[in-house]
Amino acid sequence: MRKSSRSNKESVASALLNEVAMRRATLLLVMLAGCATDVVVDDETGGTGHDEDEEHVDHDVFLRDPDVPDRFLFAAGTTVGQVARTACSTAGVRPLSEQLLAEVECLRPGTLSRIDNIANVSLGAGALPKMNSAAATALRNTVAGGGTMSVSSTTRATAQQYVLHYWYANGRCTSVVSLAARPGRSNHESGVALDVPAYGTWKSRLTARGFTWLGSSDPVHFDYRGSGAVDIRPLAVKAFQRLWNRNHPNDRIAEDGVWGNATASRMDRSPAGGFAIGPQCGATPPPPNTPPPPPPPSTATLTGVIYEGTSTSARIAGARVALSNGRTTTASSTGVYEFTGLAPGTVTITVTAAGFRAASATRTLAAGTENWGSVSLTRGGATGSLIGVVYRGTDTSARIAGATVRLGTGQTATSDASGVYRFTSVGEGAVNITASASGYLAKTITRTIAPGTENWGSVGLAQGQALESQCGGVSFAGECDGNVVSYCSEGELVTVDCGAYGLTCGWNGDEGYNDCR
């Protein structure tokens, strides 16, 4: 599911789009202005108004029209994140996008006006029919002199920009977009941008009405800079935050108009078909000093019984219980085990006991409740030894000393000076072997243990370390916290709740990282 822009390992799941003759190149940088002020465009000295260490991407470069619907059909309940990860068209999030622009109008009435009712203006299949009111008036006056203007792109909602930036950041849909701004920063979110394919026909008439032509680098693009131009980008982000809070009173985020990680994670999980509770103009705010609702429970409890065969009364005392997140415990004298403080999501339970075959079970843990995960064992569990070498890359002679080797049963060992690790007694059957070492990306392989013999499970580790900045100790290979996967991408910590898509977090052995599966 997750793919890096560096490795371009994304599996494209979308259909082909109709080719649109629009190649867009170097960009006009538009400074984010306050919601009540006119649009401010950068001066010729190159000032951008952004922090110097922040990525300067305010304009988008398209190789095809990203709004033209493709053949990918979305089921009810599809999220914005699923559209971003599976399609190469923003059409799937259009219903939510229309809600967002309607909420902008609630925040500042009169800011936007419809342009699909302007005679002699023909909108493209994906163009939303609204613009800044002053820009709409200027457009109406432009076409009043005759002729039909074809407009391929206008105001873009934050949901559409999220999808575009996801493609750009993750190397998806490279035949559609080669550069996209972060949500809340694209000039097309400002409400004053207009793309006109027949720009040569309309250039003089548009500029006479207050539109500025970007130039030959992006000839189809015009920005309205005349009287009354208002940049709605801060309002656009705030509109989403309001809609989210209205539909999720127990998971509220700041309504500050600032795009950040909290807002991004909620956009990823938002319904592409729109929220159940839509825009509400003039909604009454909560009384001052009203305490927020208590947060929902954030942890889960897992308990169960270890028993023999089909009789739950035949308890097995002292069995070792290991979870896929690394936690272990021992069953009590009555065969009962318990874990508390677990992250919600899917977890695998592996149980071993002397004289019994190892067994595993998978459970999905819900927060704030007691979850049951009883496991049955059968007698006759023979064991074998396991030995292996931890080495660098593909060179088996480049041994890695001090590597940690963890089995799916919860057993651990450390490689010696020769890079060799050993387990003297491992239950027969399939077992996961995970090797990790400082300066290397962890890797998991699976081997089948044959009883009464020596079994081999050598592991080659690729060099790599966690990037600095947001990532801390999290590497590109990532890690699972219950059903949530976190990984480092270009110095930015990315967190995805796999459960929101009906998936689980686990190790992708083919690609060499943790991911939603």
Task: Tell me what you see in this structure.
The chain has 517 residues and is of the alpha+beta class. Helices cover 15% and strands 31% of the residues. It folds into 4 domains: 30-269, Muramoyl-pentapeptide Carboxypeptidase, domain 2, CATH 3.30.1380; 300-377, Carboxypeptidase-like, regulatory domain (Immunoglobulin-like); 383-463, Immunoglobulin-like (Sandwich); 469-516, no CATH class. It is built from 7 helices and 35 strands. Strand 31 (479-481) and strand 32 form a beta hairpin. Helix 1 (80-86) packs parallel to helix 4 and helix 2 packs across helix 6. The chain is elongated. The termini are close together. Residues 3-57 have low confidence and may be disordered.
Write the layout of secondary structure elements.
Elements: E1 30-31, E2 40-41, E3 61-62, H1 80-86, H2 94-107, E4 112-114, E5 121-123, E6 130-132, H3 133-143, E7 149-151, H4 158-170, E8 177-179, E9 193-195, H5 199-208, E10 211-213, E11 221-224, H6 233-247, H7 261-269, E12 300-308, E13 311-315, E14 320-323, E15 328-330, E16 336-342, E17 345-352, E18 359-365, E19 370-372, E20 375-377, E21 383-392, E22 395-399, E23 404-407, E24 412-414, E25 420-427, E26 429-436, E27 440-441, E28 443-449, E29 454-456, E30 459-463, E31 479-481, E32 484-489, E33 492-497, E34 505-508, E35 513-516
Parallel strand pairs: 5-7, 12-19, 12-20, 21-29, 21-30
Antiparallel strand pairs: 1-2, 3-8, 4-6, 9-11, 10-11, 12-13, 12-16, 14-15, 14-17, 17-18, 21-22, 21-25, 23-24, 23-26, 26-28, 27-30, 31-32, 32-33, 34-35
Helix pairs in contact: 1-4, 2-6, 3-5
